[in-house]
Amino acid sequence: MSLQGYLRQVKPRLTESHVPHVDRIQSLLTEADTTEATYAEMAICYHYNLLRTDGNSDRALSQAGISKENFKKLFPSLLETGKKVANQMKDRGPWLLHSGSGSANTFYSQGRDVTPKADFVGNNKNYISLKKSASSGSGAQLMSAKSGEASGVVEAAIGHYEKNTSEDFSRNSAFENAMDILENKMKETARNDLNVEVGKGKIDFQNWYLTKSPQAIKLKSNRKNKTKDVEKHLKSELSLLGATKMSASAKKNLIKGIPAVSKSEIENVFQKYQEDDDVKVGDVMVSAKHLTKVSPDKLTDPAIKKQIIDVIKTSINATEWQKELQKFFDNNEELKKWLVYEAASGLYKFTGKYSDGKNYYGSQSAVANKILVFSDDGIKNEYDILKYSMNNPQLADKVSVSYKGSGRSKYIKLGIAAHYESELPMLQEEIYHLQRQYVLTEGFFRNIKDKFMGFLNKLQDIIKRFYENVITKFIVGIKNIAKNGVTALLDALGLEITGDVSFSTPSW
Question: DSSP string spanning 441-484?
Answer without folding.
Answer: STTTTTTHHHHHHHHHHHHHHHHHHHHHHHHHHHHHHHHHHHTT
